[in-house]
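QA checklist item 7 of 12: single-chain prediction sanity check.
[x] sequence parsed
[x] length recorded as 362
[x] structure emitted
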Amino acid sequence: MFYRRILRPLLFLQDPETAHERTLELLARIHGIALRTVRPFSSPRLSLQVAGLQFPNPVGLAAGCDKNGKAIAVWPYFGFGFVEIGTVTVRPQSGNPRPRLFRVPEHGALINCLGFNSEGSEAVARRLAWLRRQKRPLPVPLGINLGKNRQVTGYDETLEDYRTGFRRLARFADFVVLNVSSPNTPGLRQWQERERLDVLLEMLCAEANALANRHGSRPVPIFVKISPDMTEPDVQDVAEVAVQRQIAGIIATNTTLERPEALVGVPRTGGLSGRPLRDRATAVVRLLYRLTRGQLPIIGVGGISTPEDAYARLQAGASLVQLYTALVYEGPCLPRHINQGLLRLMDRDGVQHLSEIIGVHA
């Protein structure tokens, strides 16, 4: 209530990106304190294992919020069961010109044309190395989202870009996400195509195995994040490649280039996120679950802002869910509220453990 009545109106007086940056800088200042004191929201009924990792609850922070990992330890304090930072590019880049982030409050949506603004993999690696030296493990799984630099356009150059980012950052991650679906980097979405995706995954799975052999550990799980704008045959291609390469799972979905008719007067370029994306993102999760026969974990993201949204996404086939845009409108108490709401919905339906509802409506 405090956030919606007092803090949000103050933040909304500022440009969206400026408000986000100032909030993140504030959270970064308490990062070290949070690392010493944080305990994630946890319940035996919500805890589950996905891709060999233990998640205290199924609600995660989506990529795009904490791009450079400045406030990693703060997010579990708000109730998140896992954190995904990024998208991180190999070399620093400023992204597209401002303004490039727009609110659509009447629809609970954002439009972003950021273009992978990133401090670069070396800066993020230094930050993650510092976090590891604190000898206080993050109490939730950490994912790192990788993307390619804008100036990298060639086929071989793109493969090498992802390889370099993976080699530099994978050792700090509990799981790695390949972003091949942002609409704001020219040519990126073509890496969702069957042949290109297969080559990319073959290369990075080999890198993961080599890293595991060097350190005597298991390979870091790899997820692919896909677009909501794909046709059904294209989604099927991704699903088949993912299963064939035995990757950890798929994140569905990124932002959309589509604009519902109700969104009048909003920017036509950039990725749309938030409530207008909800139904489409749910449909993609349901399709993926059917195509993979429930054998490949799916992380559902896009338009989740209530416990009912999260519950429906899990019933459609997601094993975990993520959110970001809804935080802008509902505030930092949202992940805890969603987790508590999931428990109430499970009580209503006589469900003992979250795993019982995954895919029941696929």
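[x] summary fact logged: The chain has a mean pLDDT of 96.
[ ] second reviewer sign-off
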